[in-house]
Amino acid sequence: MKFAIVGTGGTGGTIGAYLALKGNDVTFIARGKHLEAIRERGLTIRTSHRGDILIHPAKACTMEEYGDTPDVMFICVKYYGLEDAISLARRTAGPDTLILPILNVFGTGEVMQEKLPHLTCLDGCMYIFAKIAEPGIIEQPEKILRVIYGFRPGQDTRLAPKAKALEEVLRAADIRGHFSDNIRRDALQKFAFVSPMGAAGLYFDAVSDTFQHEGPEREMFLGLIKEVAALGNAMGLTFEKDLAETGLKLIDAFKPGLRTSMQRDVLAKGPSEFDGLVNRIVKLGKQYHVPVPLYEKISAWGKANHVS
Fold it and tell me: Which segments of the chain belong to CATH 3.40.50.720?
């Protein structure tokens, strides 16, 4: 399969490198010094479980330079960069292209589909902890690497055979790929971890090991998960696992000192996914008449502190 990785950060860079390592045709779409380094020295993934992965030479270009039509387009930009990704898909994706956003924000595929009505935009999510350490180098300190994707209810499933074949391609590349028959449930289940961790971590300026001990940080983390779970129930979703229990198992297994990408973006005084990870839940709570007082508290705090 031919892949376009739109956004070669911790998420896109890692999944693209694993795919390229197994001989897949992968184009990394990046910018700035990161792109320059990839062109000059290739892309390196520094892992804690299998050593360094080096893709050199690596096919890399800007969004403006990309002109191919891929089989699969992984959208790995931050939520605030989604419009640029939509423009790229509109220009380069074909009728047989699977467009697969794996952003942190719940429901991104549906947002894309509304603006790309003649293309196929799935929904997806990814379990990973990785970040750009320096231009051309991505650190993956945790082994977890799982991609879940699928069609939404009522969506045209003409490309289902290709979506199923993608599952095997991912698994052959040591990525736990899963073609889901209930992606809204699975995506919200993932969101029920990444959103509470990012929101509580930002609010308390806390790192991963802070949540591994009893205290107000862990209590808020759990409370936020329960609010997302209540929202999911109001949306008619039935979860196979207890989201609070699953969230605690995940956070308790993390290495110490880790921050989410939203925390890092805010600390760098740049744009963040606060609107998608926090304010979106407040809006959905009102839409489905579900109380979300902890999210409202953090949303108000973000507004008072000019978090964007």
Answer: 2-181
